[in-house]
TrEMBL record:
The keyword Transcription regulation does not apply. It comes from the Bacteria. Residues 374-383 have a biased composition (Gly residues). InterPro entries: Aldolase_TIM, NMO. It comes from Streptomyces olivaceiscleroticus. This is Propionate 3-nitronate monooxygenase. GO terms for molecular function: monooxygenase activity.
Length: 383
């Protein structure tokens, strides 16, 4: 049987798997060595690329770690909207001296090959994003001692994960940076007000399933970790908080933008990938987001060369600057130091508070409530 999640790290702190290079072996190793749970992101990599990163990480540390997989996506039923968007981006390609990518790239993200490798060379934890694996897949990983986690954004998705036999769910609030891990990409849910906040979602999921909950979404401080643990989570997953660390593989321009006053807010957008993802509101997001169709991963393939060219040109205005709502709280600390600071903040937030001195007895005995009755409760309501 897989080892319980709570036994894999000294602190209830999970470093989020951020696809695109940020969650590299160096970051995962540093987080693990400091007592957190490090993660590799296998999304957008080949199975062999994932294998190489696992081998590098194992060469750096003997601590437990996780690997995140993207679930295969359905093929595009209609290419017309993607073709229109491609025409819209022609000027962007000219601006950065590049060509747009082929939107008809693979939609399975080498999923089956990655699964086969993870069965042959098991890792402590495997998590899934953009859907729930089959019960057969979960069982095959359980048999080799791997703990399975499914990212969910609704109580219904959590029930699907429980039915598949997952060991835990990662509950992702709308505050989270990067892609929303919805199991079904429904354009009807678009809009910054469409998602559910983390604390509310934790409560909904805990009433729907019996699985342990990892909480994710905008968490940047130890006091916030204490809040989600008090709400019933067993651990907190932080992504944006680790982006600014020197070990992170994020582009330097991305790291700088997190606390740059120029980027005052985040938005959910389809502009870069065709799926809702939260990022810093830059020029590309503002100009093209309203016109981007629901077409993932077609738009990811389409804009990939453009984003790389913008980064090479030193222009963050056309990069996908994924970030959670708490991005302005990012701290440029080494990963091990950040874990230590978060753990200390968590301990301080959970420490018993100093008792409040008893109020003096009322001078008018008639003002005291009769024996056996309750006085005013919080906010003046009855207790």
């Amino acid at each position: 049987m897989p080892t319980a999640l709570t036994e894999l790290s000294a602190h209830p702190i999970v470093q989020a798997p951020m696809a695109g290079g940020a969650s590299c072996p160096e970051l995962a190793a540093a987080v693990g060595a400091a007592g957190g749970l490090g993660f590799l992101a296998a999304g957008y990599k080949t199975a062999d690329g994932m294998r190489q990163e696992i081998e590098r990480l194992r060469g750096m540390t003997g601590r437990p770690f996780g690997v995140n997989l993207f679930m295969p996506q359905p093929a595009l039923a209609e290419d017309a909207a993607v073709d229109v968007y491609r025409e819209r981006l022609a000027g962007e390609a000219d601006r950065y001296g590049t060509t747009l990518g082929d939107p008809r790239g693979a939609t399975d993200d080498d999923y089956e090959a990655k699964l086969a490798l993870l069965r042959e060379n098991p890792v402590p934890v495997v998590s899934f994003t953009f859907g729930s694996p089959t019960a057969e897949t979960v069982d095959s990983l359980t048999r080799v001692g791997t703990c399975t986690v499914v990212t969910v954004t609704t109580a219904a998705e959590a029930r699907d994960a429980q039915e598949a036999g997952a060991d835990a769910v990662c509950v992702q609030g709308t505050e989270a940076g990067g892609h929303q891990g919805t199991h079904r990409d429904d354009p009807q849910r678009d809009g910054n007000g469409a998602g559910v906040g983390l604390l509310t979602l934790i409560a909904e999921v805990r009433e729907a399933v019996r699985l342990p909950v990892i909480a994710a979404g905008g968490l940047m401080r130890g006091a916030q970790i204490a809040a989600v643990l008090a709400a019933g989570a067993v651990a907190a997953q932080l992504g944006t908080a680790f982006l600014a660390c020197p070990e992170s593989g994020a582009h330097p321009l991305h790291k700088q933008a997190l606390t740059d006053p120029l980027y005052a807010r985040t938005e959910l957008t389809r502009a870069f990938s065709g799926r809702p993802a939260r990022g810093l509101a830059n020029r590309f997001l503002r100009e093209h987001g309203p016109y981007a169709p629901a077409a993932y991963p077609a738009l990811h393939h389409l804009t990939s060369p453009l984003r790389k060219a913008a980064a090479q040109a030193g222009d963050p205005q056309a990069m996908s600057l994924w970030a959670g709502q708490g991005h302005r709280l990012a701290r440029q600390l080494p990963a091990a130091e950040l874990v230590a600071v978060l753990a200390a903040e968590l301990a301080a937030a959970r420490a018993p508070s100093t008792p409040v001195a008893s109020a003096p007895a009322p001078s008018n005995p008639a003002a005291s409530p009769p024996a056996g009755t309750a006085g005013p409760g919080p906010f003046g309501s009855a207790s």
